[in-house]
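EI: anyone free to look at a 204-residue chain?
SC: sure, send it
EI:
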Amino acid sequence: MALHDPPRRAQARTLEGSDSQARLRKLQKRFKTSSRGLGRGRRPRPAPRPAHRPALRLGLTLTLLFAMVGAWVLLDPVPAARVVPSERISGMPTRVIDGDTFDFGPLRVRLESVDAPEMSTPHGEPARRHLASLIAAGGPIRCEDTGARTYDRIVAHCVTAQGRDLEAAMVEDGWARDIPRFSHGRHLWRQLRATVARRGMHAG
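SC: here you go
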């Protein structure tokens, strides 16, 4: 029996070697399969972006407002000439002409830094009535002559007896627009609020 041991041992070693190689090939095959599976895995979907509609709407409104301001600066609706300011005018106007002009007897006064719709437009009469209601509710008004004249009208800054600024009130209520050239932009935020809230002539 001892004479046959070496060949058997050699055969056993050969079988063990072939088994090891088979196991190694199986492991390599499994590793390749798992690697391919990982490569073909689904990527996580990106989170949906939040909607920014309110911010977009506000941005468009601001863009439109500044475009309108630029147009009003270039197309000056109040060509005014400077003269020496006269005394202050006070009392109750005798007649309201439109949304930014009224009479004190023979004197015609125009509000300084706003522009109301013309009477020939659909918003002209409502703007005139609104200015008349502000004057009637505020009592006697005081107007300070700025020294400017436009079409023989005294350009003035006017407030009611309670101290309410007529220009600011007309813009804030949506019945006049700011003229940045003369107001230096002090009514712009009032106009923006009136536009966003769709007050007065901005409702249509």
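EI: The radius of gyration is 42 Å.
SC: 👍
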